Amino acid sequence: MSFAWAKPYEPKTGLGRWFDERLPLPRLVYGAIGGGYPVPRNLNYWWNFGVAAGIFLTVQIVTGIVLAMHYYASADGAFNSIEHIMRDVNAGWWLRYAHMNGASFFFIVVYVHIFRGLFYGSYKAPRELVWMLGLVIYLLMMATAFMGYVLPWGQMSYWGAQVITGFFSAFPVVGEPIRVWLLGGYAPDQAALTRFFSLHYLLPFVIAAVTVLHIWALHIPGSNNPTGVDVKTEKDTLPFHPFYTAKDGWFAGALLFAYCVLTFFAPNYLGHPDNYIPANPLATPAHIVPEWYFWPFYAILRSFTVDVIIPAKLWGVTAMFGSILLLFFLPWLDKSPVRSGSYRPVFKRFFGLLILDVLVLGYVGGAPITPLNIALGQLATAYYFAHFLIILPLVSKFETPLPLPSSISESVLHGEKAEAAPIGQTKPAN
Amino acid sequence: MVSQVGEDHSLRRRDFINIAAVSFAGVGAAAVVLPLVSQMSPSADVLALASTEVDISKIAPGQAIKTVWRKQPVFVRNLTPQEIAAANAVDVSTLRDPQTLAERTKPGKMNWLITMGVCTHLGCIPLGTGEGENRGPFGGYFCPCHGSAYDTAARIRQGPAPLNLQVPEYAFTSDTVVTIG
After folding, report:
1. How far is the alpha carbon of B18 from chain A, nearest alpha carbon, in Å?
2. Residue A421: which pLDDT band, with cuts at 50, 70 and 90?
């Protein structure tokens, strides 16, 4: 699809030819994830996380469909149906823990995937739409995860629903009516639970559809690579199958191993014990936090404590949504023509700071509210926005990048020559 | 397969790794499919409904009641001597599903006919337990869905059903209490 030397699909059997002439589905698969899709030969392990995200989307859809066979979205019965799944349904405990921790792993791999794109400039031309579709997937994931967390109808579910729909009440005039419309009532209740279940079941399939677009858009220019240098000749690429199916397969095995360790030995480690208390509309838990993957955004939300022109509440909500929405403009904020952070010494340092900053935001978002944590969160929030809105444009303007390799294969061969050098000699003899 | 085998007809190391890796993934996939399939089987709380006790002391001869076992209707009928005689008068070899009344009841309790209330055709509940309900041409039960008629031993006599009404596993725990299941 992407390069002139991509091998066309050749059916090996008569039946294969018969089928291909009528419905070229095997041809599509061959060209997308088979021997007909040439991929840069120098991809490192950070490039495994896209396929890994697809695997966890599948895990979530499969376990979710099965759980929906036993769950009932009733304000009176939802909590009990979860306990029924845990105690009575055959392998129900495993299915639920697999779904809970599958959500966490989905976010882990997607965060790595996003930061890989940020470091290697995968959002830059000609892959802007790949990046933006990825952000759409991420937003859909957040909505799906939030509504899924409401379904068990425990204390954290209930108060999470209350707080998150409360975001909308920050907007003047229309905010409160919108909140009431979203909930179908004045507080989370049956109407909210039923519609959250309906949408929680729907959105993963929307994610799958947008993923198809994401991959389609990716396969036009083909994958980026650790040098960020464009593919020039056939020597720069390898066919996806068997080279990257094998590498992705091995990596998926390693990742699923870690997932199993968590699911079987610490299934509630990433959860919150308060969600094993049935929802009580008259008592809020003392320390209310979202799931870990929302902590950085929760920290941004809580960082705004003073009314400046508009109320603090509206600042917080705007900043929280803005922190993701500004990523849509990233391809135009970072104007450096060099994609890979490996060749951008100044960018590389600020990228490290950004990771540290997001980790600090994550810590603050999960920690109790103290004056120190609020100050820390405010500092980290300010840096987050400064990074994208001030630092990146300036760096891309003033930075002198390192010389780029003239091609992917040259960068690879250079490494092999260095390896071949005799011990104690860093440069090849010739 | 020629390409899979080396010149000395030994399997190449890469082939072994390939087969081992794919087999390992296959075993893993099978291990995952197993619980995904078994979750659809009856859960522990459904299985916990597997037995039920019925008090039969208030059922007069000629009367029948409907009770529930595993969410399915069970017919408990106290046969009259005439109904027992009618059931025993039939030549068993002429029946579609040959069984005597004695085989379908407990020894010494031949008047207590306990069967599932589920037509063996397609699962409707036959009529004949309630007062004034159509009991069909053979005086037992009559299924309104497709016209299967059962006699006073709840044996299939006419219509599309292939088998007699099923006799569930049960025992008399006393003269007046029956435990089904």
Report:
1. 9
2. low
